[in-house]
Amino acid sequence: MPKTETETPKMKPRPIVRLGIFLISHSLLVSVVCCTAGVLALLLLPLLAKNTYISENALMPGSASSMISNRDISEANRLASDLSGLNFKPQDSAALESRRILTKYMSDLGAEVSYHKFHHKPNQFHPLHFFSSPDSTSSVKNLSCSAHGVNTVGIIRAPRGDGKEAIVLVTPYKFGKSSAAETLSLSIAYTVFSLLSRVTWLAKDIIWFVADSQYGEYAPVEAWLRDYHTPVFTGLGTLNADRCVKIDDPYVFEQKSIVQRKISDGFRRAGTMAAALILKVADRNEMLEDTLNIYAEASNGQMPNLDLINIVNYLAVHRQGLRVKVEKVLTLLDSRWLEILGQIFELLGKVARSLNPGWKFGISAADYIEGSATLASSLYYQALGIPTGPHGAFRDFQVDAITLEISPKVSPHNKARHNEFLLRGGRLVEGVIRSINNLLEKFHQSFFLYMLTSPSKFVSVGVYMIAFALLVAPLPLVAASLYADANQLDLGVKNTKSTPTATASDELDITFRSWKWLYAAKEVFLIHVWGAAVSLLPYFICQIPNCSPTSGSAIWVFLSMLSLLILYLIVGSPSTHVSISQSEEKGEWAILKSATISAVFIGLLVMSVVNFAAAEIGALLLVPMCLMAQPLKLDMKAAKLRSFLRIICNVVLGFVAFPPAAFFVVKTIFEGFDSINMGDFWNWMESLWAWNSATYIYIGMVHLPCWVLCLHILLHSC
Amino acid sequence: MLRLILIYLPKTFNLASRPEVSTPLVSLRRLAEGYWLKQSSISPYAGSMYHGSPLLLSLLGPLTVKRIEGQPNHLLCSDADDSLHILGYSLVFVIADIISALLIRATGHTLQMAYRQSLNSLDIVDLLKSSDLLSSGDIAALVYLWNPFTIAACVGLSTSPVENLVVILALHGACKGLVPLAAFGWVMATHLSLYPAILIIPVILLLGYGPDTPPRKLFLQKGYGKNGDSHPSDNCGQQETSQSKAEVTFSWRPVIHFLFWSSLWSTYVLVLCIISVKPHGSLWEMFQRCQLDILSFIISGSDLWINEKTYGFILTMEDMSPNIGVLWYFFAEVFDFFRSFFMIVFHLNILFMILPLAIRLKHRPCFLAFIYIAISSMLKSYPSVGDSALYLGLLGLFLDELADMKFSFFLLCGYIGVSLLSPVMHNLWIWRGTGNANFYYATGMAYACLQIILVVESVSAVLNHDRKLRKLSVTKLRDGNS
User: Fold this and answer.
1) Residues A324 and A313 sit within 8 Å (Cβ to Cβ)
2) What confidence score (pLDDT) does residue A169 get?
3) Which domains, and CATH codes, for chain A?
4) Positive or negative, the Cα torsion across A443, A448, A450, A453?
5) Which residue of chain B has the CA closest to A521?
6) Distance from CA of B340 to the nearest CA of A (A)
7) Are B399 and B136 in contact (CB under 8 A)?
8) pTM of the full predicted structure?
9) A606/B417 CB distance under 8 A
10) Which phi and psi angles does A268 have, rounded to 5°?
């Protein structure tokens, strides 16, 4: 037992305990070293990125030659011209007609065609959605019948399959008012679809899902997936469906009279989805060559399996000669300091290679800048937790999906060029589908947790976790050392053993002190409750009719302040709880700080599991602030250079770590000072909670309370 | 009441289906299933769903059936209507929780009285000043009521509040010396979840010696000290010696009473069980199984017959669905032919610790009971947060003794961290598919480690406390002598 150990004079604790004590007693040094190492490791990540490789052998991308023929392409062109011929008609009839044409073409290929009605629902506020399973029951009610769209689904049954698995091909299409690019994407999909209806090697069913994108591209896909995965039994489901059936009736009848075969208005299913590809053609034209943009980030920073991106990248680059791009932060590309950093790393790499030719970790400065810009955008989009496209809906159902956005080089009116483009796109999609078709199990071989630094380079979880771990590591150490200091616990390093013959009053004191943290814990808990309340406030602010983003954020800030004030008035200024003598005043803020740091640690740890990127960015902001925080009054009294510097650091960090301030600072850096607007923050937060981002909960319940607590420590009266 | 409001939440939270809250033994849905089977005159154990006690079935069953009749497809959709029935149902649990809190409070008062008395008899009154504004019983009751674990167990509609209630009933009865109550609580607790069977030792000690006191040696020492010194007030010393002597002696009468009552109650419970199961023709089946289950037969020491479907289920660990314990993963991994061996090892794990602890802590039976509950909730086959709610509530009872416990802050942080991480890891494993079972099991291990630290630290804190008392009384004696 620990206490008996102290009684025997020369009892040495075990090495691991001694190591722990050593670390705790040098927590200042350790934390400085760890934090710098953490930031440095983050900057090193583009250097440490590995080349992607295809990890699942069954995929065998590109091993079979493409089978798309000119017949498929001419069919697709016919479909495209039929569809674009409708553009001059009024919108409603054009929508009906285009849907009819599409259906006809699909069913001519021998596919089963069905319609899927969905109702557009406005964004709702349910921030705790993350913890509940993706349930279907919550959103059935209160749908207006007016806002609905109709998706068209075509299914090809695989001749070799047992109907248990399927591959999904999604093309968003605005029925009735489509652009040329959308028609082009439709014709690429049709090319592939018509080929696949003839091939014999198909082992998985193919679902071609033409999403009615008049309410955005995400909503129809999400609605369809939800219906696909919820078995509807007789009774409730039909009841709900019937409610709006009157509107659709004429339309359904009309459809039936025209194309009788194989159209069902019931819901058609194929097996579980192995993967999904969302195919889009960008409106803009590229200067140099056909390019392919890959979007992969799903909700809460989830990524599809890396193998899926690998296949697409491999096929696009090595077979079709497309240029593959992933999103990057453009302003970082010409930033000065990054260039300098890149040159330094390049130099280091050269030096290392001159020392030992086997070391190859240097990359050129240009590569470094490119990589870090991509990494930054990867980090940002994962941290936001908002899906970057309709593929996000698939990930919620554990289906790997990515969006392929192809931008053609020249305008699609050039006939020969047009056909070549169709051929390339079609071959790419065909190759990908053929690879996935080979798959025996779900994607599981490659990584799920990774960040891309270029389409063919990635940083895996094992590498990027190091940066985070280094950043977070000082937190428990500092918390422990503060706690020990405040309690004047003997850690065995100061050569003063606790006297075994302590008097009764001393022991009472110790007793009292060892539970003193309860007050600090209570305070931290209260502030966190306040944080939860603040993050629930927008729900009520949303109810206020026609409220602009600016006024919304103003109300929000005002209410939060008010509630904080009320909290202080009710509970009383926390320093009045314990009236301890002056000597222990120091202990009070130290214990408060240690409790705060523990809360930050737990919060960051949980968040790093939920959404790593958000935790990383949050740690960059929070950790220095929490570690630096010290009452300003103490520094004022000291009036030395060091304490002065500390004051400045504290004020700056305290400003930057405030979530809105951080948002605006980042925005100013990237977009210039002019574009700042109070409403922007509101809009940003609104997008976060509308997409059920866990980042929102993190900001509300970890970041903001901890910021308040740090401010409280800064302004502590002692 | 807070939790009545919280009852409305589970629609989004789905607490009732969370593995942390409802295990195969305590889940309400399984109980509803069992009741439904019983209604259609099949043995409730016919399916593999229900494993609880038949008494609980007839007690709580009617409440669940209302739910089912009122909302035929309540499993598919959670309409607003059935919240009314949930309300009625959860009311039972809320009441159970409140009663347990009241009982804890009463027990706490008894314990504190005993503590003060023993301190008084040792002349260390100044220590009492430390015991602060609230008495430990109040704090324990508040801790029990406001513990998030308790609330989760209550809102999650598991039957563990009822089980906790009977355990506390047994302790309370033993503390107050109400033999029939203690016997009833113990028999019911054992009947409901088997593990409280080991509480028979603390209960007997409690009845024999009375509530927690400092070690007996102290009183003897003191007695000798008083005797040895030729103080004018010799009578007083003599009196006190006799008093402490009287306290020391183990009184057999209540223990015999207890055994008698417990056998009485257990036959009663058994008869009730038979009655409730009889109409469905499973009596013979059950009876046969009783003969088989010798182990439980020995433990109970009386003619408590055991239904294999409940206790066999607990002992053989059939259902290996994930929970916060450490056994499911192990038995999912272990080879089949080692299974029975490890089963015995794991269950003996609990039994191993009984004897040493009983010898070391025999002067503090209540604390011993707390340690037993903590250990068994750590090592039991289907732990849930309701179990930890019970021992965390009891922890508050020993506020004075545990005042200088170490690592308390660390433990609190650990509990918060684990209880936040565990659902996230589960989500990662089940819903997002990016994690695997190891992630979730890691939190289970961390949780078990926390419990171990808690047990070790609390035991060492209590022993230290005893040591401190001895030191104080010795110095007092010396002062008195000189």
Assistant:
1) yes
2) 92
3) 1-45+458-515 (no CATH), 57-327+388-455 (3.40.630.10), 518-718 (no CATH)
4) positive
5) B409
6) 34
7) yes
8) 0.80
9) yes
10) -100, 140
